[in-house]
Design a protein that fits this description.
Helices cover 76% and strands 0% of the residues. By secondary structure, the chain is an all-alpha fold. The chain has a single domain, classed as de novo design (two linked rop proteins) (Up-down Bundle).
């Protein structure tokens, strides 16, 4: 078990959640029903799954939660791309998309570490 506060990727995911909440304020029920809620729910699950994974007892369990976080980055990316197409005036959507790619890269590397560690402990 580890302290998720020590993980840079958790801090970046938290910053991304704050950023996404801010930029999606332009998404209203009138112009894109439900999309803001979906984006916010997905972006919240990224740092939550990182934190939950860090508290697991085994590397295999940690890797599973990191996989969930990776999936959530793709969900946010897809929803944000749709939002950008529907409401082109959303501020800094491109910068957020680029940051999501970087967070996902970090998560993939961290997950790979835990997968290797899990296999080494079993083998």
């Amino acid at each position: 078990m580890h302290d998720y506060h020590d993980l840079q990727v958790w801090h970046r995911a938290m910053d991304m959640a704050v950023r996404i909440f801010s930029i999606t304020r332009q998404l209203t029920a009138a112009n894109v029903p439900g999309l803001r809620n979906q984006i916010c729910r997905a972006v919240l699950s990224i740092p939550a799954n990182i934190a939950e994974g860090a508290r697991q007892e085994t590397s295999a369990q940690t890797a599973r939660f990191l996989s969930y976080a990776i999936g959530s980055t793709s969900e946010v990316e897809s929803h944000l791309e749709l939002a950008r197409r529907l409401v082109p005036t959303i501020p800094d959507a491109q910068g957020s998309l680029e940051e999501l790619v970087e967070i996902r890269r970090m998560l993939v590397a961290l997950r790979a570490f835990h997968v290797r560690r899990s296999k080494a402990l079993l083998g």
